[in-house]
Write a structure and sequence with these properties.
The protein is built from ten helices and 14 strands. By secondary structure, the chain is α/β, with parallel strands linked by helices. The protein has two domains: 249 residues, Leucine-rich repeat, LRR (right-handed beta-alpha superhelix); 45 residues, no CATH class.
Length: 316
Amino acid sequence: MVLLTIDLITKSSNYLKKKRGYTFPEYLKRLTHLNFSNKNIEGIGDLSKCRNLTVLYLYDNHISQICNLGFASNLTHLYMQNNDVTRIENLHNLDKLSKLYLGGNSITVVEGLEQVRELKELHLENQKLAPGEKLLFDPRTLLSLAESLCVLNINNNRIDEIKDLAALKQLQHFSAADNKLHDMEELDFVFSNWPQLHHMDLSGNPVCQTPKYRDRLITVCKRLEDLDGKEINDLSRQFLIRWKALKEAKKKRNNTHMMTELPITSPLKHDSDMARGPRPGHIYSRTNVLQGKLQQPRSDPTRERRVRYSISQNTI
C-alpha cells in the first residue's frame, strides 16, 4: 500500500529540485503546494510537519478515505477527483478551505461540510454510483453552505429533484447536466431563490424538452449570462422579461373584468315569492336564486292528457 508520507516527499523529484540549500525541516515548513497526482497513492499518512500547506493535488489515485488532514488549517484547495472516496469526512478543521474537488469518486451523500464555512466551490460530478442510486444532499450541509457556496457541479449523478438546493442563495455557477430533472415548476422555485446566478448548464435533462424551457428560465434568472452553453444577450433577455410582464398584466386585467361582471346585489324583487315558499311545479336552485330567476313549471304531457280526458268524461 502506497501512503503519502514525509518519507515519500523526500524521495520526490520536486523536493530535490526545490531543496536549494534548505534543511528538510525548513523545506517542509515553507511548503505551500504539494502535487502527488497520479502516483498510485492509496492513503494519506502523517503530513503534520507541512503546516503551511495551502494547495494539495491528489487526483487520479486510489485513495478510499479522506483522513489525516486535521493539521492543514491553512489549506484552501483540495483536489481529490478520480479516487475511491466513499464519504466526505474529516474536513472539520479546514477552516480556510475554499475549493473542494471530489468528482469521479463513489460518494452517495453530500455531507460532512458543516464546519467548512468558507467553501466557495464544490465539484461532485460523475460519481460512481450503484444501479438505482442517486446523489443525495444532507440538509445540514446545505444550510452551512448557504452563505458561502458560489460554484456547484453535480453533473451526471442521476439526480431527479433539487428543491433542497434552494438554500444555496449565493450560487453563481450551477452545473447539473446529464441528470433526471423533469419538473419545470420545481426549477422555477429553486432558481427564483438564486439572484446571483450567472452561468447554468442543465443540458441532457428531460426538463429541457419542456415547451418554452429556455424562455422561462431566462425570465426567472434575471442575471443569467449563459444557459446550456449558449450565451444570453441583453436584448433577448429584456424582450422576454417584457413579454412575461405583459402576459401577467393581461391575465390580471381579465380576472378583474370577470369579477366586475358578477352580480353584486341580491334579488330583492323576489323576496315575496321566496317568503311564500316554493309554489307547486317551481324549481329553485342556487344558481337561479343568485341570478334572480325562478324557473317556470316544467310541462308534463302525461298529466295534461289525463286532465283533458277527465274533463271530456265529465262533459259527456
